[in-house]
Amino acid sequence: MPDGRTQRFKTVTGKLDEPQDTLTFLPPYDSVKEQASRFYPAVFAGIETAVEYDQLLLSYAQLNGRTIRVIDEAGKELATAADVEAAPKVFLAFIDKEKPKNNFTLPVSKEPKIGYQTFDTRVFNGKDGEKLRERHIGNKVKEIRYVSP
């Protein structure tokens, strides 16, 4: 989109989702397991497979009391595609509001890479005017094709 946001098209439903405010790409387990286990042993001690890693990440996207924020290296939240683009380095902060010792960050890519999973967010107003945040961990990137306009 002209403002830098993206939209997901669901082939199964034939539906174009609402525009997303940020899009980043999560590295696969094999590229983060060594450092993640060293920096966050309490969180990653029992994680031994890519499936367990994916389940851990999904728990922060889906469970009450947990959330994921896109941040820069100073910890400032990046709320828009322009914020993400302007940041030299981008991370995801995985936040457990009830058990802060389970908080951790992972470096992410601003560009698609084969094997990386998409992560996108959008902030919107609910039916009662309350501010809501949608977080979505998507499928792994399997192919990258650039099409000329």
Architecture overview:
- By secondary structure, the chain is of the alpha+beta class.
- The chain has one domain.
- Helix content is 23%, strand content 32%.
- The protein has 4 helices and 8 strands, in the order βββαααβαββββ.
- The strands form 3 sheets. Strands 3-7-8 form a 3-stranded antiparallel beta sheet. Strands 4-5-6 form a 3-stranded antiparallel beta sheet, covered by helices on one side. The chain has a two-stranded antiparallel ribbon with strand order 1-2.
- A hairpin with a 7-residue loop joins β5 and β6.
- The longest helix is centred in the middle third of the chain and has 13 residues.
- The chain is globular, with a radius of gyration of 16 Å.
Ranges where pLDDT stays below 50 over 5 or more residues in a row are none
| Range of strand content | 25-35%
User: What about the largest sheet?
Assistant: 3 strands, antiparallel
Counting structural domains, the number is 1
Shape: globular
Order of helices and strands: EEEHHHEHEEEE
Terminal CA distance: 13 Å
The number of helical elements comes to 4
What is the count of β-strands?
Answer: 8
Neighbour order of strands in the largest sheet: 3-7-8
